[in-house]
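Why do we care about 3D structure at all? Because function follows from shape, and shape follows, mostly, from sequence. That is the central idea of this module. The next example makes it concrete: a single protein chain, its amino acid sequence, and then its structure expressed as tokens.
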Amino acid sequence: MVKNKFIKQNILKYTALFEPQIEGGYTVTIPSLPGCISQGNTFEEAVKNIKEAITLFLEDVKENDLKDIYYPSEIFTAPINIFLRDKDETSHYIRSRNTKNP
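And the structure:
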């Protein structure tokens, strides 16, 4: 008779911020894990490296009995559009509002 073994696994989801670097590659941070940072020369390498950094970070948290501190947070991202006017357009707009209409 074969006995099935079940291994309990927790799947944690974190938001990773990838910042392209001028010299190439990416720097990656995990906002909900302060100090958890990595990098990679390619996006794929950065993903692999940050996964390893998260694992090491969480192992350290567990070893030091800090497991209640770091759980995935409800962080989400959303695009925000900011429209900046040219300096000349802004000054024209201000001037036109300060003049009397004929």
